[in-house]
Amino acid sequence: MNTEGQLAERDSSPGSEKEREGRSRSSHASARTGEPPSAGRLPHRPAWGWLTGGGRWRRAALLATACAAFVLLVSGFVLQPFLIPSGSMESTLRPGDRVLVNKLAYRFGDDPRRGDVVVFDGAGSFGEEEPSGNPVTGLLRKAAAAVGLAEPAESDYVKRVVGIGGDRVTCCDERGRIEVNGQPVDEHYLHPGDSPSRVRFDIAVPEGRLWVMGDHRDASRDSRDYLGAPGGGTVPVDKVIGRAEWIGWPFGRWSSVPRTDAFTSVPAAPGRIPSAAPGGAHG
After folding, report:
1. Fold classification of 86-129+152-256 (topology level)
2. Annotated catalytic residue within 75, 86, 88, 197
3. Rounded CA gap, 229 and 263, in Å?
4. 18-77, pLDDT tens digit by residue?
5. Where is the composition biased (Basic and acidic residues) (predicted)?
6. Active-site residue 16, yes or no?
């Protein structure tokens, strides 16, 4: 029998007629009720239905939670705002400024350079190790400080790097200037009227540590004040939180934190390879 005859026999089989009748009855029933054939099935919900459902307030709460988590993630690992509470870095930074600190600046093999403005944890070098307190209060304070809504921890400081590991930093030459590795430094960023230092010192900075000072020398508690503390007033490099890059608040102060070329002529410490790009919160 030819192929056309086989197809004809299949189309005219009893099973085929019953299937057509079933489809016809389903179609008539749908026409009478006004519902599609699949009306009795459960509606399909997309995988993200939990996010889009629940009304406007639920969506707003989920969005706010996601934004807060994103901000905390960024401030924890990339860019964190810090509130400047004192005038120790004037006129570069003023009380009330919120600076954005680049936490990745020294995470990939680069080290702080002379002239960098850095935020660091001074616990153990600028004071005793931070005492333990109420963990809930501490967590809330850290969360508020992470978005610049509260002052940083009492052990967090913002200062300018003056000496790095291996440097010899002394005060002062016959003109009252600080010397680094025998080279006088003209610190044009100092607060007007301040001298480079009213305290005499001669310090060899240990490897892996920093000698830091505020720009408002007459109002700054810095490495000079901790000469008798462990480390001789120097700060471990691994306690540096990041480099201050931008002033984000108030609006009228929007700008990058100025870099300085004051240390360009400073020679490398004996035994160290010169850097390819020399030198560039609490008070």
Report:
1. Umud Fragment, subunit A (2.10.109)
2. 88
3. 27
4. 455 555 554 444 444 454 554 555 555 555 554 555 577 766 666 666 655 545 544 454
5. 7-24
6. no
